[in-house]
Amino acid sequence: MIQLSRLVSFLKALSDPNRIRMVALLKDGPLHGQALASKLHLKPPTVTHHAKKLKDAGIIVERRNKNTIYFHLNEKSLALLAHGILELGGDQMSNQIQVKDEEKLAIIKNFTTVDGKLKQIPAQQKKKIIILAYYIRGLEHGKKYQEKEINEYIQQFHEDFATIRREWVMHHFIYRQNNMYELNPKEMWPLVF
């Protein structure tokens, strides 16, 4: 399963018509920057700028041949990212685990202290998701958080803020972009309280 942040980067990289045209040209084979500039009627620095965006998103790769850099379409990555988008619309959106309220409460009671702190991060996936969903409730939908704010929020209930933050991203509770975090729609969460 591809992280949502990676899919967002992919879509942003393709949000420019010149980048889409570059991808279309590269599907026929590798080209160097001058050739792309000529075919796209752009200046070489502009091509370099667009190529960096595509490279950062994993859509193209660079290969040097002597003094010339050739841009190649990263077809495997492109196919994986495109497939990741299709997964979002299908099973993943409805792939929430089903847990009875009594079971949720029992797991929360076992892993939390009386004052609301997390004793330990559960090793079992189902229990971990229940705990992650329980603690994510303190964040607001539609609000963007700096990484520092997320860390401080997590430290209120557990010292290992990096692991909790990473687990939230991996399980699609939140997404990260440029060190800013925002809650995903609840339909993407593996469990909703």
From TrEMBL:
InterPro entries: ArsR-like_HTH (IPR011991), DUF2087 (IPR018656), HTH_ArsR_DNA-bd_dom (IPR001845), HTH_MetalResp_TranReg (IPR051081), WH-like_DNA-bd_sf (IPR036388), WH_DNA-bd_sf (IPR036390)
Keywords assigned: DNA-binding, Transcription, Transcription regulation
Keyword Aminoacyl-tRNA synthetase: no
UniProt keyword annotation of Protease present: no
CDD domains linked: HTH_ARSR
Residue span, HTH arsR-type domain: 1-93
Molecular functions (GO terms): DNA binding; DNA-binding transcription factor activity
Transmembrane regions: none
NCBIfam families assigned: HTH_metalloreg (NF033788)
Name of the featured protein: HTH arsR-type domain-containing protein
Organism per entry: Melghiribacillus thermohalophilus
